[in-house]
Design brief:
alpha+beta, eight-stranded mixed beta sheet, two-stranded antiparallel sheet, 63% helix, cell projection, PH-like_dom_sf, cytoplasm, protein transport
């Protein structure tokens, strides 16, 4: 950067820089419009340089951005699992504590009731009665003996789907149920609310909703398959609702358990197990336990209960009660399956990679739904791959885009394959579905790849380089025994064939154009450096004997047309071999044959028409170079790249054998 540019950069980066004063001062000091234009160009060039540097830094760190995003996604999934485990541990510890303290609480409660036998209970009921008088349609709620108010307050209900406010409600938490009442717009006397819904405490689960501005201070009530979301006035009131709801539910569960223990008669000493399986408590409570597990998204617990039941019922005869129980359980299985299917649907969040689907997939397999689990898993991953490809932006160099496209697609395919192998290890029948899915997703990749590589009319060498990149990424899949190279090639064959034929036509047109201006003169490269460079190029093409056509000076004993043709044809051959696979064999072979015929026919025509003996001898020299030097190199290089000889090229060379004849004769080739 020039000294003036450095000073300008420092001035613009100064914290005290004021644009208005700077422009005013610049206008006063400039001699005219030309100075302002020059200064504007300097500022513009500095802005372009800054933008270019910023873009380079973004490209430089792009891979790190991608890896960081993946790690964050994996960490989020692991944190969710850890939170689930901690919640279960907390529940277990609280149950143990509750059991230890229940005796002390019962003794304390008995002492309070002995001291105040009726006052406390009557006060709670009077409070509830006075509040329920304000609820339209809530008079019958007090018909249940022993029901009293625990907590109440105003809440705002939100729509579960779009998180928009629905209505203002008043919630009444009682010792055995939760009443939701809506506010009346037109009050009638003391009545303020209208009855909306009443939920038994053991029929729903309470879930905290994480704050995400502007959605704050919310909690969710889950009543499978429905749910409702409420917002408290502030975080303190929300915390009170969560704590009191949790404590009230536990108290009711403890009370119900003690009531069953008091009512249930002691079993005879001689009978350890009831002879009637339907007298077992866990079987009687199984449908309700399944509902709770489904509502709390405890899929593993629900499937464990089903496995336990199926194992137990294996030894029992098929009676009407067994059939009725199975019918009841089948309804829960259907509900559980629907929830698991929804967990795997593409409409759900696709973040977290294939591992995020493992929980739902494993439970579907345990339910005997391995085919459905396989189908949903592959649909989920196909949607994830398609979304990743669509979100990939085309910025900067095309080669960078191709690298990112290949990295995203083949990495996703590799991760999906590893997860599939882990989830469906015992279901070998699903592997064919994965192979079919892999081929269909490969088509998505090839569509995006071809649109950028072949539709943009890039050169053949560029297309060959990018196809090579795709093949190298595809080879990564072989480490898990999945080889999709053939699928990739078969999907690319149409575009590669068109590219080869298009580039062949370009070479033929260029050769014909040079032929039309042919003067049959020796090529003068003007400098020894240019001669040395041409020798290196020919040596790189495989024409090792080219030095015999050059001397100590800057002249080459060949025409410019023949030298240019040789370089262009050898380049076409090398790029064609990079793109080669068996389906393209005849296309590449016929293209080479057509290109060679254009040059050979031109030499033949010139030799027949030329009358000058010196020029005729020079033409014969060029013909010998093509026949004895160039065509054998083409045949040898083609055989090395393909693995088998090209009989068509051999026949072509034999049919164009030059013949040394009298210079006056017009016969040139046989």
């Amino acid at each position: 950067m020039s000294e003036t540019g450095s000073r300008l950069r420092k001035l613009l980066e100064s914290p005290n820089f004021e644009p208005q004063n700077y422009v005013k001062q610049l206008s006063q000091l400039s001699d005219g419009d030309r100075d302002l234009q020059e200064h504007r160009q300097k500022v513009q060039s500095l802005a372009d340089e800054t933008a270019q540097n910023l873009k380079k830094n973004v490209y430089k760190n792009y891979r790190q951005f991608i890896e960081t995003a993946k790690e964050i996604s994996y960490l989020e999934s692991e944190m969710y699992q850890l939170s689930h485990i901690l919640t279960e541990q907390k529940s277990i510890m609280e149950s143990i504590t509750q059991a230890l303290l229940s005796t002390d609480k019962d003794e304390t409660s008995k002492e309070m009731q002995a001291a105040f036998p009726k006052e406390t209970e009557e006060l709670k009921q009077r409070t509830l009665t006075s509040l329920l008088e304000k609820v339209e349609g809530g008079k019958n709620i007090m018909d249940t003996p022993g029901r009293h108010l625990v907590y109440n307050g105003d809440l705002v209900e939100f729509d579960v789907d779009n998180m928009s406010p629905v209505q203002k409600v008043h919630a009444f938490l009682m010792n055995d149920c939760l009443l939701i009442a809506t506010w009346l717009p037109n009050r009638r006397g003391a009545v303020k609310y209208k009855y909306n819904a009443l939920y038994e405490l053991d029929s729903f689960a309470v879930v905290n909703v994480k704050d995400n501005a502007p959605m704050k201070d919310m909690f969710k009530i889950l009543m499978f398959p429905d749910s409702r979301i409420f917002q408290a006035e502030n975080s303190k009131i929300k915390k009170e609702w969560l704590e009191i709801l949790d404590e009230t539910k536990k108290n009711k569960a403890t009370k119900d358990r003690h009531s069953k223990e008091e009512v249930a008669p002691a079993p005879p000493a001689r009978a350890e197990v009831s002879t009637n399986p339907f007298d077992l408590e866990w079987i009687q409570e199984l449908p309700e336990d399944l509902d709770v597990c489904i509502a709390q998204r405890d899929f593993e617990g629900a499937v464990d209960l089903l496995d336990k039941l199926n194992e137990y019922l294996k030894e029992l005869p098929v009676t009407q009660r067994v059939k009725a129980l199975r019918a009841t359980v089948e309804e829960r299985v259907r509900q559980l399956t629907e929830v698991l299917v929804f967990e795997l649907s593409p409409d759900r969040s696709l973040r977290g990679g294939p591992k995020a689907t493992r929980r739902a997939v494993s439970q579907l397999i345990r339910l005997g739904q391995s085919t459905k689990a396989c189908e949903l898993f592959l649909k989920n991953r196909a949607a994830a791959v398609q979304t990743a490809i669509r979100q990939l932006r085309i910025e900067g160099a095309t080669l960078l885009y191709i690298h990112k496209l290949c990295n995203i697609f083949f990495t996703s395919l590799l991760e999906t394959a590893k997860e599939f192998e882990m989830d469906f290890a015992g279901n070998t029948g699903c592997y064919s579905a994965f192979v079919v899915w892999s081929k269909s997703t490969m088509r998505m990749f090839v569509d995006a790849f071809s649109k950028q590589v072949f539709d943009s009319k890039e050169s053949l060498s560029t297309a060959a380089e990018w196809v090579k990149v795709a093949k190298e990424h595809c080879q990564q899949l072989t480490e898990i025994g999945l080889d999709l190279t053939f699928s990739l090639q078969s999907l690319l064959v149409k575009d590669i064939k068109a590219a080869l034929q298009s580039y062949k036509d370009i070479i033929i047109e260029a050769t014909k154009h040079r032929n039309s201006e042919e003067m049959w003169r020796r090529l003068n490269l003007m400098t020894p450096e240019a001669v040395a460079k041409l020798k290196d190029e020919m040596r790189g093409c495989g024409v090792g004997s080219f030095e015999q056509f050059t001397g100590d000076d800057c002249w080459v004993n060949l025409s410019y047309t023949v030298v240019a043709f040789t370089k262009q044809m050898m380049s076409f051959l090398e790029e064609g071999l990079k793109l080669y696979f068996p389906e393209l064999h005849m296309v590449l072979l016929e293209s080479l044959r057509e290109i060679i015929l254009v040059a050979v026919q031109h030499v033949d025509y010139s030799l027949r028409c030329e009358q000058d003996p010196e020029k005729k001898a020079f033409i014969v020299l060029n013909a010998a170079f093509l026949h004895d030097t160039v065509l054998p190199v083409v045949e040898r290089r083609f055989e090395e790249g393909v693995g088998k000889p090209a009989k068509q090229l051999q026949d072509l060379r034999k049919s164009t054998r030059p013949v040394r004849v009298n210079p006056e004769s017009t016969t040139s080739m046989v």
